[in-house]
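Exercise 3.2. Students should predict the tertiary structure of the chain below and write it as structure tokens, then compare their answer with the key that follows.

Predict this chain's 3D structure.
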Amino acid sequence: MESIWKLISICLPSQFCSFIILKIKVIVHKEVILEAFEKARNDKMKETGIEPSVSNCASYISDYIEEESDFPYGERSLRDLYKKAKTENKSVEIKQPQVVDALCKFLGFIDYRDFLKNNSTDKESKEKINFKESLNSSEGVLNKRNVIAFAVTVLIVISGVIYFSIDRQRWMIWEEDHYLEVPFNTEKLKSGALKLYRKNRVKYFKKVAVNCNTEFFNKGNSVNIWYGKNAKKELEYFNSEGLHPETGKTLKPITKYMIDKYICR
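Answer key:
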């Protein structure tokens, strides 16, 4: 891998690489943040009928990132990114790649690369045009040979990253009432059914049947059961907190009100 990056540095001038990195930071991460908060707002509006605050949206997104990537990313950090993204001409950079990928999955994309491929905006198109013009006006920055070498190098890097990540990564899928470890499947990944393997999810997270005799609370009054609605708007119950396996919405802790109204009528 080190030799590949050396080849990139030889084929391309540092100004060129810096230009590309700057565009990615300014345009793409900014769009990811703005779209993530817009989706969170819409989800919350559908769920409660009330306009959520920026903090509520940030908390909702933070829960999703931790569940999806097993990487804690705080509400305050998300609020700061959103504030930056709302400010014109402010660059927005998310340094943690797993956070970027989780945000892209939250928006319905496979990963960050898929977002770049399918989420081209008018502003981004203008920047690409400006980028091409800057290349044409640069004196001797790139010639045809350098462009070809760069394209070949990028293909090698991408192919290597995809091969090693898929080969070494473990995956799981939801089966009726539990997570099951499975081999990689492109179609299931595209549909959103395939998720990154998490040992605790596979080993402990279950959908459970409840009745009036279920122990909903521990002796210390802590919660044993969480609930959420499936895609058919039916209530389902789980033995652990987290996200609903079908809808991706955050499960809620059981309350006496819910027990009396829906379980022990």
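Discussion points: The longest helix spans residues 14-48. The chain has two domains: 2-165, 171-263.
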